[in-house]
User: Which sequence fits this backbone?
C-alpha cells in the first residue's frame, strides 16, 4: 500500500513538473513579445532585439525603400521606407543614429517630421510601436552610404551610429500579433494552473481517493488489501489485478482504483476501429466495468484483444455473480430494469471468489451460470 501511494505521488509530481515547465516556458517566450520598452529611455548600449514604443519627434530623411514586384507586369510598389533617427529623447546627452522602418502609409507624417527636423524644429510626437532588429548587410550598406554622403568618416560612422532599426508594426500598443501572444500566454497560464493543481493533489494524496474509498467500502484493513493485491491474478504488467477482496486497476497510474468484488455487476469489452478518410489507422480495446459504487461505470484501456479476452475469462470464472459479455438487450435491461439484470447472476450466486485453496470461504457457486457465459460473449 505504501509503495502504491509513493508511486501515485511520483507520477503526479513528474506530470505536475512537466506542466509547470511547459506553462512557464510558453509564458516566458510570449511575454517577451508583448512587453514594450520606451525607446527614448534606452541608452545606446541597451538597444538590442526588443519591443519598443516610440514617440518620434525628429528624423533625418529616408535612405532606403522596400518594394514588392508584380511577377506578371513587373510593376514595383513601395511597401516600406527606412528613415534615419537618433536614440534618446530631446534632452539626451548621449545618443547615436540608427533607423526606423515604417509602412509607406506613414510617409506623409514622416516627411513632415523630416522637414521640421531640417528646420531644427521638433514635431508633435508621432506614437508608434515596433520591434528592434539588426540591419542586414545590404541594409547596412545603404545606411552607411547615407552617412558617407553626409561627410561622415568611417571612424565617425563607427562611433556615432548603431546598425539597428525599429520595424514599425503599427501606431497602437495592441495589434493582432500581440493578441495572439496574449492567447498563448493564457494557454501557458492554464498549464501552470493545471500543474499547481496536480501538485497540490499529489501532496495531499487526493489521487488515492478512489482507491481509499474502495477499500473503505469493502470494509477491510490496509494490510488485508495489501496481501490481497500481492496474491491477485495480474494482467497488463499488473496494472489490473483480480483479487479476492477487490478488483484493482490503474495500479501503474497516478489514480489507482479498487472496487469491492461484491459490488461488481457486469463486465464487457469494447473495440473501437479508428479511420482517417476511410482508411483504417488503428484499433483500441477497453473493458467496461459496471458496479454498485460511486461512479459505477469504469472504462479501462487494454493493449490488445487477447489481453481483454483473458481478463474477461478470468472475471467469468473468479466472480461467477458477474455478467460477462455485451448485447443491446443487456444494456437495455441494465438501464431500464436493474432488478431483472441482477436476478440473472448477482442475486443468485454467493459473492465468494471461486478459487481453490480459499479455506474459510463457502464456494456457493451455481455452475449453471457458467454455461450462460457464451451467450453474452
Assistant:
Amino acid at each position: 500500500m505504501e509503495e502504491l501511494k509513493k508511486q501515485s505521488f511520483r507520477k503526479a509530481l513528474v506530470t505536475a513538473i512537466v506542466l509547470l515547465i511547459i506553462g512557464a516556458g510558453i509564458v516566458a517566450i510570449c511575454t517577451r513579445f508583448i512587453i514594450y520598452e520606451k525607446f527614448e529611455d534606452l541608452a545606446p548600449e541597451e538597444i538590442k532585439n526588443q519591443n519598443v514604443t516610440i514617440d518620434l519627434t525628429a528624423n533625418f530623411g529616408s535612405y532606403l525603400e522596400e518594394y514588392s514586384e508584380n511577377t506578371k507586369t513587373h510593376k514595383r510598389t513601395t511597401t516600406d521606407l527606412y528613415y534615419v533617427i537618433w536614440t534618446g529623447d530631446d534632452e539626451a546627452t548621449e545618443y547615436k543614429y540608427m533607423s526606423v522602418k515604417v509602412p509607406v502609409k506613414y510617409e506623409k507624417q514622416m516627411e513632415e517630421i523630416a522637414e521640421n527636423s531640417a528646420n531644427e524644429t521638433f514635431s508633435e510626437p508621432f506614437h508608434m510601436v515596433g520591434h528592434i532588429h539588426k540591419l542586414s548587410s545590404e541594409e547596412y550598406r545603404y545606411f552607411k552610404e547615407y552617412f558617407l554622403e553626409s561627410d561622415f568618416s568611417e571612424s565617425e560612422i563607427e562611433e556615432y551610429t548603431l546598425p539597428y532599426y525599429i520595424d514599425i508594426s503599427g501606431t497602437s500598443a495592441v495589434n493582432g500579433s500581440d493578441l495572439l501572444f496574449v492567447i498563448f500566454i493564457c494557454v501557458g497560464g492554464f498549464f501552470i494552473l493545471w500543474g499547481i493543481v496536480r501538485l497540490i493533489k499529489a501532496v495531499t494524496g487526493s489521487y488515492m481517493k478512489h482507491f481509499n474509498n474502495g477499500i473503505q467500502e469493502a470494509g477491510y484493513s490496509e494490510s488485508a488489501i495489501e496481501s490481497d493485491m500481492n496474491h491477485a491474478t495480474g494482467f497488463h504488467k499488473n496494472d489490473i489485478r483480480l483479487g479476492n477482496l477487490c478488483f484493482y486497476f490503474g495500479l501503474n497510474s497516478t489514480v489507482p482504483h479498487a472496487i469491492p468484488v461484491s459490488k461488481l455487476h457486469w463486465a464487457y469489452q469494447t473495440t473501437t476501429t479508428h479511420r482517417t478518410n476511410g482508411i483504417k489507422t488503428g484499433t483500441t480495446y477497453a473493458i467496461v466495468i459496471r458496479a454498485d459504487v460511486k461512479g459505477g461505470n469504469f472504462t479501462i484501456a487494454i493493449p490488445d484483444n487477447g489481453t481483454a479476452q483473458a481478463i474477461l475469462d478470468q472475471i467469468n470464472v473468479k466472480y461467477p455473480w458477474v455478467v460477462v459479455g455485451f448485447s443491446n438487450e443487456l444494456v437495455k435491461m441494465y438501464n431500464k430494469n436493474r432488478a431483472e439484470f441482477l436476478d440473472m447472476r448477482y442475486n443468485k450466486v454467493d459473492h465468494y471468489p471461486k478459487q481453490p485453496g480459499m479455506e474459510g470461504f463457502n464456494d456457493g457457486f451455481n455452475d449453471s451460470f457458467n454455461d450462460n457465459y457464451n451467450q453474452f460473449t
Q: What stands out?
A: The chain has twelve helices and 15 strands. Residues 2-34 form the longest helix (33 residues).
